[in-house]
Specification:
By secondary structure, the protein is an alpha+beta fold. It has 3 helices and 4 strands, in the order βαβααββ.
């Protein structure tokens, strides 16, 4: 099975999600999207599969979102995708893709919705908070 995480190692949420995936017994394919961003169609596909609008998939804090005027409600998806292609830091993270679906794993526990094995044991986030399972326990 292939699990892919679009990862930013500088992001604690992304690191937490990676730890949860590994605790589930899987070693994901890691795409450091700031170095190797998905192409436009792949990004569009990930956003749609996650059930998000393009705007919902954008990261605002710590990015050039405001200075680029991306808060303008008149901007359409194509203009927002143009900005994300030019500035991959605008892509929110981490997106995770598994055979069970795609999620923007914010908060970290959202990834449990699409992992094949959610029996992850006692996993704690970097801040010490316990990760709670969101689905039924495996039999």
């Amino acid at each position: 099975m292939t699990i892919t995480i679009y990862h930013n190692p500088a992001c604690s949420t992304s690191r937490n999600v990676l730890a949860i995936i590994r605790a589930s017994g899987e070693e994901p394919r890691i795409v450091e999207y700031l170095k190797d961003p998905p192409d436009r169609e792949r990004l569009r596909s990930l956003i749609a599969a996650a059930g998000l609008s393009v705007r919902e998939a954008m990261r605002q804090s710590g990015t050039p979102y405001a200075e680029l005027g991306l808060d303008d409600p008149g901007l359409g998806d194509e203009q927002l995708l143009d900005a994300m292609m030019a500035h991959p830091i605008l892509i929110n993270r981490p997106f995770v893709e598994t055979p069970k679906g795609v999620r923007l794993a914010r908060p970290s526990e959202v990834v449990l919705e699409i992992l094949p094995n959610i029996d992850i044991g006692d996993v704690r986030k970097e801040d010490g908070q316990a990760v709670r399972r969101t689905g039924p326990r495996p039999e």
